[in-house]
Amino acid sequence: MSNLSKRDEESMANSSVPARQDVKGFPAPSEGFVLTHLLIVTDQESSREFYRKVIGAEVIRERDPVVLRASNGWLIINSGSGPTDDKPDVVAAPPQNPNVLTSCLNFRVEDVWATYREWKASGAEFLTEPKDHGGEIRCYMRDPDGHLIEVGQSTGILNQL
């Protein structure tokens, strides 16, 4: 007999089911979530070509942002920018010092509002509520060490592929 609660058993069972992606290969799950990784760069084209050539990543989207399928994960490559309404005190910038880690985890989900409510109820502290940016709806939270984590839902960007 298991010492796990029914909720824990259901959670473990659901977590082992891989999320599916959109038919075009874009990380837009219809259930569960897909973990992607966002890199802020100075030159999208040279970064895209580096990952395509060096690790064999498949180019799903050419730019703004670059979307690459790398093995069983995805890389999102974008240029830096100033604060936005969903991360009002955060500037996205490429690494300023090669000895300082500058990256962000990016969870792509089917329903950002449902995930926002569920994770907030579980103790996550979000910078803002989800914000609609046309191509996606997104919000940000921080882990206990302050690492920025994006939670986003692909919307209009799917029509641009």
Write the layout of secondary structure elements.
Layout: H1 6-15, E1 33-41, H2 44-55, E2 58-61, E3 66-70, E4 73-79, E5 104-109, H3 112-121, E6 131-132, E7 136-142, E8 148-154
Parallel strand pairs: 1-4, 5-8
Antiparallel strand pairs: 1-5, 2-3, 3-4, 6-7, 7-8
Description of the structure:
With 161 residues, the protein is an alpha+beta fold. It has one domain (20-160): Roll (2,3-Dihydroxybiphenyl 1,2-Dioxygenase, domain 1). It has 3 helices and 8 strands; from the N terminus they run αβαββββαβββ. It has helices at residues 6-15, 44-55, 112-121; strands spanning 33-41, 58-61, 66-70, 73-79, 104-109, 131-132, 136-142, 148-154. Strand 7 and strand 8 (148-154) form a beta hairpin. The model is unreliable at 1-5 and 7-19 (pLDDT under 50).
Any key phrases for this structure?
globular, 2,3-Dihydroxybiphenyl 1,2-Dioxygenase, domain 1, 8 strands, alpha+beta, 161 residues, eight-stranded mixed beta sheet
